[in-house]
């Protein structure tokens, strides 16, 4: 760990240049020749990346940042705070510690948190930062977590794992067995060391594929931030054999949207209709969940078509996603499109429609933006339609 960058003058320089163009800055002469210029530039670039994602680290004094890639790959504080709200206890061991953002938040709900990170330099950086952040109940171990589990007699309340995809697995269908550590192979061993496990995976993992590789899964959390799915969380409890709950959350600036359902519920009742007064588009977490029939059943609203995943109702409801008032519905035909969209500006979405947004814009010369929201979709009678809407805030 390069502690020379903690010199007050260098720290002031890093703070003053946060957000600066690194390419231009790199061409300047290093004002601190006793420290590698690349190290200072890395701190500036990584700190710039952390501004919105990691405000606690950004505003604290004497923080050392790892590479900008490590900052890009780490959890944001908002998703870390959500994870920490799910679990609590006396002891937690994080087998894949990384930059330690998750552990900083877990430490608020656990008496002891063990941060395992095989990269010694990164482990040192994290240990230093936890000291600056006054997190005194997190203990850093710069070793392979499997060794700690083998050598320790400790029975942990929780194990947390964020497996990383192996380099040789690129291009293949994403499976947990293609990651390090290989959780499916090690699961029985982990369950000897803890009765509860939380596994974080990339959002591209297919939920049914994850379930096929794991056992004792009680809850699956789909976590979106500003309508972009960031992570899936598989919550495992030893010998659990009940139904699996899918819990979706979309963390927005002004509110949090939640929706949950039980996987494989036979009593789900879905209804269909032609467009009514209001239109609903589920958020990204709900879309990832596949709970399209459950949305219709729970909110008692109609789907436009089995494969359209848009919903409609006569009265306005609260909904986990975007809401619109339908101003007009037109059939998708040459004459109607020419009449309606001649030199107009609109936000376009396609759902269960044979053409792409790009093709539609080009074909009908529709500019992007404005206050009109147009959904190109298929109705319950298999007709191609366009719904012209205004957004409800």
From TrEMBL:
PG-1098 ferredoxin-like domain ranges (all copies): 278-320
Pfam family, one: PG_1098_Fer
Gene3D superfamilies named among the record's database cross-references: Methyltransferase PG1098, N-terminal domain (1.10.10.1110), Vaccinia Virus protein VP39 (3.40.50.150)
Domain THUMP-like per the UniProt entry, residue ranges: 321-391
SUPFAM superfamilies given in the database record: S-adenosyl-L-methionine-dependent methyltransferases (SSF53335)
Keywords: Methyltransferase, Transferase
Domain of life of the source: Bacteria
GO MF assignments: methyltransferase activity
GO biological process: methylation
Coiled coil: none
InterPro entries, per the entry: PG_1098_Fer, SAM-dependent_MTases_sf, Thump-like
Name of this chain's protein: Class I SAM-dependent methyltransferase
